[in-house]
Specification:
Strand content of chain B: under 5%
Number of strands of chain B: 0
Shape of chain A: globular
Largest sheet of chain A: 6 strands, mixed
Shape of chain B: elongated
Structural class of chain A: alpha/beta
Structural class of chain B: mainly alpha
Radius of gyration of chain A: 18 Å
Distance between the termini of chain A: 32 Å
Number of helices of chain B: 13
Order of helices and strands of chain A: EEEHEEHEHHHEHEHEEHH
Radius of gyration of chain B: 28 Å
Oligomer: heterodimer
Helix content of chain B: over 70%
CATH superfamily of the largest domain in chain B: MetI-like
Largest sheet of chain B: none
Chain lengths: ~240, ~325
């Protein structure tokens, strides 16, 4: 579904963040990316839907090379939902408007249809009573659940999570992880950058360890946590676990 | 100290402030009318001595002494003298008479009120179209400038915008108006159109910087969120960034419109009969500067107070998403 070939990303000419990332993600996989700060995991994730333009390398999504300049990236992004660390809800719109804005403005659904879908999704995350509230009236955990719903309303094929719980206290993080877990069980393809080791262990089908702009280890969670091969990963795990 | 300031801040209300200034103005008008009444009233022209005496004595609050009784004009003053009212009552009666005379002379008998209304209409027309033009130009340039500042794209357009803003902000509006009318319009065609274009172009430069700051005050995550949902740059700008930016810059924008409204008073430089110019013309008819200018100032004041009230309401409406 997603194939990344020789991905390089350089900021300001001399800061090399990604130094040749190669990976293939299949449909239905739940890939969790962990690694120390500054290892390039967020940049890697943001390259997948071209929020960052790769310096070189290729990214293929559903058989299309999205790094090709001629590609209509807006069209492809509809199929890739993204959830941010700081939620990035639209503060001037109600929750319902946040969710329905993109589907309606892009002409994918009629307004009534979008509303119906939004309510169904809100019910799924237990926030249907917040439809007419504004983001400022919600807690962090609620905001992030709404952000997930907003991305889901576009009916994406893959969901990208960029440290979705890093700005939340443990209780709120729990609410959000619960939603993500249900999403995983429903068969969504997911790429999750996180520091939640528990989530990685229980939900992931594959765990990647990124350091120094490269994927150092790529293994199922059991092997990743039980028998890590890379010495840098062994050191990292000994510190965080 | 803090507490006093707190009390002042909380007891301040728009209505009270407006009423206070209006009262101040009217009081000033009445007082100076009273002073002027003594030597400037039309029926004192021939029999200055007698009426002057009467009005002076009346101002002092004493019973008038009538000395001259022969002339026809003196008859009038005798009538006035036989008026039983004295003292302060008399003062206010004279005051009322004088004020109504002045108002009649400045605004009624010469159709001054109609000219003022026409002038007001011209001022409003120029302000309205100029502010629309200003918003359009400003929005456009502000977006170009902010795109350049955040992504270094549109380098050439940004240069043009910077040049435009620099030139417009660096020269006086009067000079721009004169150039627009006498050089570009060749002093022949539509004056009001020249004024609208000048003020619109002038305002656009300021609005551009206001919009730029507004757009750049929005967190970059908003754009990313919009784009990640598949919205285009333009769609995200229109539905997500601009509404928030406008909300943030509304006070500054309101300030700009108020400035614009008052700045149109220089339209008289190219002989447009706007509100200020009409006031000046009425002054030149009667050589009585007080009434026409006070009237013009009052009209501007009411316009600006109304405009700022409108902006406050609008702002409150936009702020409803901030409620917690």
């Amino acid at each position: 579904m997603i194939v990344v070939k020789d991905l390089y990303k350089t900021f300001d000419k001399d800061t090399q963040v990604l130094k040749g990332v190669n990976i293939e993600i299949k449909k239905g996989e739940k890939v969790v990316v962990i690694g120390p700060s500054g290892s390039g995991k967020s940049t890697f994730l943001r390259c997948l839907n071209l929020l960052e333009t790769p310096t070189s390398g290729e990214i293929w999504f559903e058989g299309i090379n999205i790094t090709d300049k001629k590609i209509d990236i807006d069209h492809l992004r509809r199929k890739m939902g993204m959830v941010f660390q700081h939620f990035n809800l639209f503060p001037h719109k109600t929750i319902l408007e946040n969710i329905t804005l993109a589907p309606v403005k892009l002409g994918l659904m009629k307004k009534a249809e979008a509303n119906e879908k939004a309510f169904a999704l809100l019910k799924r995350v237990g926030l249907s009573n917040k439809a007419d509230a504004y983001p400022a009236q919600l807690s962090g955990g609620q905001k992030q659940r709404i952000a997930i719903v907003r991305a889901l309303a576009m009916e994406p094929d893959v969901m990208l999570f960029d440290e979705p719980t890093s700005a939340l206290d443990p209780e709120m993080a729990g609410e959000v992880l619960e939603v993500m877990r249900e999403l995983a069980e429903a068969g969504m393809t997911m790429v999750v950058v996180t520091h939640e080791m528990g989530f990685a262990r229980e939900v992931a089908t594959r765990v990647l360890f990124m350091d120094d702009g490269q994927i150092q280890e790529d293994a199922p969670p059991k092997e990743f946590f039980g028998n890590p091969k890379n010495p840098r990963l062994q050191e990292f795990l000994s510190k965080v676990l | 100290m803090n507490r006093i300031w707190y009390n002042i801040k909380n007891s301040f209300s728009f209505k009270k402030a407006a009423a206070f200034f209006l009262c101040l103005w009217v009081l000033a008008a009445i007082l100076s009318a009273g002073v002027l009444a003594e030597d400037d009233s039309p029926d004192t022209t021939s029999s200055s001595v007698s009426t002057e005496t009467s009005s002076r004595t009346s101002r002092l609050g004493k019973s008038p002494l009538v000395e001259q009784q022969n002339s026809k004009e003196a008859e009038e003053s005798r009538l006035a003298a036989s008026d039983p009212s004295t003292g302060i009552v008399r003062f206010f009666k004279d005051l009322y008479k004088n004020i109504s005379k002045k108002i009649d002379r400045n605004f009624i008998s010469n159709n001054g009120w109609q000219d003022l209304l026409n002038g007001l209409w011209v001022t409003l027309k120029i302000t309205f179209y100029a502010s629309i033009l200003g918003i359009v130009i400003g929005c456009f340039l502000g977006i170009i400038r902010s795109i350049y500042e955040t992504s270094k794209k549109l380098k050439f357009l940004n240069l043009i915008a910077k040049f435009y803003i620099g030139v417009i902000r660096g020269t006086p509006a009067v000079v721009q108006l004169l150039i627009m009318y006498f050089v570009i319009f060749g002093s022949s065609s539509n004056k009001v159109l020249a004024a609208i274009l000048t003020f619109g172009i002038n305002s656009g430069a300021y609005v551009a910087e206001i919009f730029r700051s507004g757009i750049m005050s929005i967190d970059s995550g908003q754009m990313e969120a919009g784009r990640s949902l598949g919205l285009s740059y333009g769609q995200t700008m229109w539905h997500v960034i601009l509404p928030q930016a406008v909300k943030n810059v509304l006070p500054a924008l309101g300030n700009e419109f108020i400035t614009l409204l008052k700045e149109t008073s220089i339209a008289g430089y190219i002989a447009i009969e706007d509100l200020s110019r009409v006031g000046d013309r009425i002054r030149s008819q009667n050589y009585e500067p007080f009434w026409p200018f006070i009237a013009v100032a009052l009209i501007y004041l009411i316009l600006v107070l109304g405009l700022s009230k409108l902006l406050t309401l609008f702002e409150r409406r936009l702020r409803k998403s901030d409620r917690r």
